[in-house]
Specification:
This protein has about 525 residues and is α/β, with parallel strands linked by helices. It folds into 3 domains: about 160 residues, Cobalamin-binding domain (Rossmann fold, 3-Layer(aba) Sandwich), CATH 3.40.50; about 260 residues, pyruvate-formate lyase- activating enzyme, CATH 3.80.30; about 80 residues, Alpha Horseshoe (Serine Threonine Protein Phosphatase 5, Tetratricopeptide repeat), CATH 1.25.40.10. The chain has 21 helices and 14 strands. The strands form 4 sheets. A 6-stranded mixed β-sheet has the order 2-1-3-4-5-6, with helices on both faces. Strands 7-10-11 form a 3-stranded parallel β-sheet, covered by helices on one side. Strand 13, helix 13 and strand 14 form a beta-alpha-beta unit. Helix 8 runs parallel beside helix 9.
Length: about 525
Amino acid sequence: MKNVLIIVLPYLQKADDQASTKMKSWLALPYGALSVASYNKDIANIEFVDCNVDENYMTTITGIVKKDKPAIVGFSMTFDYAYNYLNEILVAVKHISPNSITVIGGAATLAAYRDILAEQPLMDAVCYADGEVPMQRLIESDNPHILLRFDPSWITRHSLDDGLIPIKSPVSNLNDSIALDYSFVDVNNYSLQEEFSPHADNIPVKRRFYLLTSRGCPYACRFCYKSRVNDRKMQYASVDKVIEQVEYLVKRFNMNILTFCDDQLLYHHKRAKEIFRRLIPYKLRVEVYQGVSVDFIDEEMAELMSAAGMVRAMINLESGSQTMLDIMIEKPVHLDKAKETIQLLRKNHIWASAIFVVGYPGETDNLRRETMNWIAEADLDWCVFNPAIPIRGTALYDLCIKNGYIKPDKLGKLDYGNYTINVPGYPAEYVKDQVYKMNLEANFVNNRAMRVGDYNTAIKMFKQVIAIYPEHAFAHYYLSECYHKLRNNNLALNHWDKFLEITNANPKWAEYEEYFKLGELNDNQ
């Protein structure tokens, strides 16, 4: 059997914005690369290196290449940021083993394959979309260079010159890729970012695993990297196979947190309900990493989600302005229905949070105010405001380049989390500031838990913010407010003093204090 080396490129970014409430990136189990390795482990000798876990990954990689002279070296690039590390590793591999075939795949390559092949002369091919079957064909080929040139799912310089349009080659049955071989990694090294909710600390020892039970997305939101994918068909693993894998993870690893990674877990209503129904006996904490769509949640769905162990639902709303929804997305989001769904979730003891994309071209201050008014009416527990980021290959990126709203960047130079779009009348720095004021207003100034007098829940949330960002002035201010309401004067004074310390030292926090007139609120106690 051929020797194959699979390398997960580094992607971790340290959070550097003390005024943010989320991490830029976290150490997640490399699901896609593991799926490719697991699917092909019986036809190749596969070595697996995750550069995000191995601090000495260059030494490890060069050691394997010297020893095994792998026939194929495959790189996994899920995020654009990882591209910054590709060339150094690629050059080292080819220097030691020039005859090794080098290929790359992953979400970040879907729209960037032309750039990769133009900028990386040592890269032989880019895989288009799902990698399990294309890698199988490459491994089994007696003439891999010819296969790469003519296979519809491998993109090469020749295929680009010939004008060929790549086609994805999914596994024929998704059941065949549900069960990952975790022996390729040490599962103890991985964790998804802590779910942000009042229930996050209820499980002291967390054993979290991930499942991708369906593939594909029928929608084409214009800011999503899948907005240019040419195949929108959905593919599903059977419910029996999903539960079989859950049973294995519980028995083998004592899993107590199950995170679904599906783009649209609820899209197939009956199937989703059956999965939740059959998860109930396992008494797990259930999370949906990509969030859920409100139009697929009826009363039975909400009840089953709760019974299966979901205590927090992240709703993919994108905007509280119907005008912006019509501009940004191509999927059904009905704002009146969303309000009903939030109440259904609350009725079933599910903490309701929602994601909003802010700063898409065409959005004005008035439309942003529409979103804030809608949030207040909908009574959400928490809101996540993501700046519109023009990811290479998306319709948003194309729009920004066409109109000169951004300058074309080299691959890997996009700064995720940092707003860069300059629309006439709305410069990037202004919009970035508005995005953060929306966050402060919704989650702190008008925090729902505080409005309804649930100060203990509010305390949990503000403490989680401070655990990530100790210098978050508003978290300290509102902790002081909560403790004051609960007559814990010592803690109230401690956090008030910290708030004053931060705002006196940091002009930006002082500016936000003045904007929301926080001092006046406290003085009127």
